[in-house]
Amino acid sequence: MKKKRWGSVMLAGLLCFLSACTAPSVEEAPIKPTGIYQQAVSWEEAQTTPFGKYPEPVLCTIGRKSRGYPEEQAIQEQVYTYSLFLQDFLNIRFCNAFDVRSEEDFRQKVSMSIASGDLPDIMTVNAQQLYQLYEEDLIADLTEAYETCASPRIQEIYDSYGGRCLNGAIFDGKLMALPTTEMSHGPGYLWLRKDWMEKLGLEEPQTMEDIEEILRRFVVDDPGNNGPGQTVGLLCSPQIAGDSSGVYMLNAIFTLYGAFPKQWFRANSGEIVYGSVQQEMKPALERVAGLYRESLLDPKFMLRTEEDCQNLLAKGISGSFFGNYWSSELLLDSLRKNPEADWTPYLVPKNEDGAVTMFAGNPNSSFIVVRKGFAHPEIAVKLASVQFDYVRDKAPEFTSALNQDGMLLNMHIGYDDAFVRSGASIQKALKGETSLESLSAGETSNYRSVCSYLDAIEKGKAPNPYDWQTYKSRVEAYNLLMQTPVRKITPIFVRETDFMRTHWPDLKNLEQTVLLKIVTGEQPIDAFDDFADQWNQTGGSQITEELRQIYE
């Protein structure tokens, strides 16, 4: 066994040499934090345990997108990057098959690798590329590697999604990739300028009618002193709705009516349907069209970019938008320009029983694959265990140093309910019910920011904007979520069929065009029925039937 493995190391070393890729020796590496050293184990144990260190160096080519921190510079500046850390901790020497900075360059490199069949040992791909690689038999089966090298916490993280994550990478009963995890962004929050509301004597909103009255007063009464007709109402993405993690989406208005735009889900009948062509969309669209007609919705929303919207918030021209719990990070410039701005999140509009409804987002958007024939496919799983489990509990200073060049895996693995878990941990720490040592590195950092915010408020000082941001999301938005009943709809995240691949772009374009025309009043609300019929007749019905056969 050992002789065979060393042969694979020598071959990988030759490949690295031929590609002019070098790796610094452990002795040359910067000074390392204490408490991370471990002894090498046997080949068998190293290949079947999450954190087992290989007895001899193992070389691995990788395709990555990093921040461009060369190892030579890291050594010179005494920065302990992930590459150096993993070399020391697991005895793995990584060789970059490609290392790019931008997402566009990364996609191009991955596409070129797949087209040529010349794959790095490990890289990240999207769902369609994963399917192509599996069909062409170019990637390794990771089923056994996951069972032996995924740490208990990593397996617990994937289990928190109820199988939704791993299922996206399973083909014919085999786990062919390690999926990302896209944690739940929770329901949509309406962020409002509470200082404007107090100036106008407005109560906190509960219903859609309350929201409309607040928007109306913001636009008409101009509490921000922007001048007559200059205050912009509710900001909105040109996409209108459908992205669970998207800022400026009107998802919360649609779900109030039981509408789930751009989502495949099981209807009450048990059949799979596409939300954008269901009748529940009509009253929701009619409500949004009413907002636009009265200029309570940004009249120029079709032309806005996210940067445009953020500028409107920063300049105090708009005081309302839908976002997620973390959307306080978009408001830092607003706070810097106007320290008196009191942005507050609300979970609204609520239905008659006081609950809000949300739809979950796709739990994975990318996948780590291993080249078929690579001698150590378990490395992909070991990397996940180290980066998203072992390092999780280390000091924030340590993780910050590692992240200067970015993680080797261009992905994230975290609990579906990570926001709730983190919020609960911070609350317990604030109440003295738990020790700081029990917090993860990220939770410790957030806890310190919250304490700094509370200390500044107690002393009558302006809090640091970053501390304000953390308090608003990790405490205020968290507490609001804990107090509000939430109904969660889990869509079906489908794999593209051949027919879908050729017809879906035209169907999406049809959908976007018609929805925009209805919202802006260019077409009446009854045009929705004609759209639904046309959508079905031009391929929608066939796609729906294909998906029903696959998933039912």
Task: Summarize the structure in words.
The protein has helices at residues 2-18, 43-46, 71-76, 82-90, 103-116, 127-135, 143-149, 152-159, 164-167, 194-200, 208-221, 251-256, 281-293, 306-314, 332-337, 378-390, 396-402, 418-430, 441-458, 465-483, 498-519, 527-551, and strands at residues 58-65, 92-100, 122-125, 170-171, 174-175, 178-179, 189-193, 264-266, 272-274, 320-323, 343-346, 356-359, 367-370, 486-489. It is mostly helical. The strands form six sheets. A three-stranded antiparallel beta sheet has the order 3-13-6. Helix 18 (418-430) crosses helix 20 and helix 21 runs antiparallel to helix 22. The model is unreliable at 1-20 and 22-31 (pLDDT under 50).
DSSP E strands, number: 14
Distance between the termini: 45 Å
Largest sheet: 3 strands, antiparallel
Strand percentage: 5-15%
Which strand order spans the largest sheet, edge to edge or round the barrel?
A: 3-13-6
Q: Using only CA atoms, what is the Rg? A: 26 Å
What is the 3D shape?
globular
Number of helices: 22
Helix content: 40-55%
The SS-based structural class is: mainly alpha
Uncertain residue ranges: 1-20, 22-31
The overall pLDDT, averaged over residues, is 90
